[in-house]
From TrEMBL:
Species in which this protein is naturally found: Halorhodospira halochloris (Ectothiorhodospira halochloris)
Keyword Transmembrane helix: yes
Superkingdom of origin organism: Bacteria
GO CC term (a single one): plasma membrane
One Pfam family here: VTT_dom
Residues covered by the VTT domain: 29-141
Protein name: DedA family protein
Length: 190
């Protein structure tokens, strides 16, 4: 905790986190680990902005990376390419980004392979990942506060409930996409 507290005093380090997270997401590596570097030590708003910026820049980086090198990393027959080819509209992209359980790397690379409109791709990433980062940042920050102070407030309980709803919705949405894809595949096979 001492290292984290020292880090929190140096807000310029958040720029390092943004750059590192963007680089990790660009290369399909786990950039979401930045949550555990930022959220316990910085206020939720600052954490949310940092994580959203790093994630969005990483999504755009992966989009461009896949334009040049993506066919080696993800095939046009991939589940995620098929998913985004059918559900690549702005609101669907926002929903997929906000839901837990949807992997960022294949979605980022599929967006580039499909040449989805970059502005709406980036905006959907920013909004969806911003919502998810905000909820996660608040939950982690509140958990640290509870651990340090030994008290639970209504805000923490509300965030846990929102997380529960997000996880449940994400599982249901993912299940729906998989079932729909399997049904379409079996219809094409007939």
């Amino acid at each position: 905790m001492a290292l984290g507290d020292a880090m929190a005093e140096r807000q310029w380090l958040l720029l390092v986190v943004v750059v590192a997270q963007a680089a990790l997401f660009t290369l399909a590596l786990p950039g979401s680990l930045a949550l555990w570097v930022v959220a316990p030590f910085y206020p939720p708003l600052l954490s949310t902005i940092t994580l959203t910026l790093g994630s969005t820049l990483g999504a755009v980086g992966a989009y461009h990376f896949s334009l040049h090198f993506g066919r080696a990393a993800i095939t046009p027959e991939s589940r995620w390419v098929r998913l985004l080819s059918r559900h690549g509209d702005f609101l669907s992209q926002c929903a997929v980004r906000a839901m837990p359980g949807f992997p960022h790397a294949p979605i980022n690379y599929a967006g580039g392979l499909l040449k989805l409109p970059l502005f709406s791709f980036a905006l959907a990433a920013c909004i969806g990942l911003g919502l998810k980062s905000g909820v996660y940042s608040f939950a982690v920050y509140e958990a640290v506060e509870v651990a340090e102070e030994g008290r639970i407030d209504r805000g923490a309980i509300g965030v846990v409930f929102v997380l529960f709803v997000l996880f449940l919705s994400g599982a249901a949405l993912r299940h729906w996409f998989v079932n729909r894809e399997e049904a379409e595949s079996s219809e094409q096979g007939k």
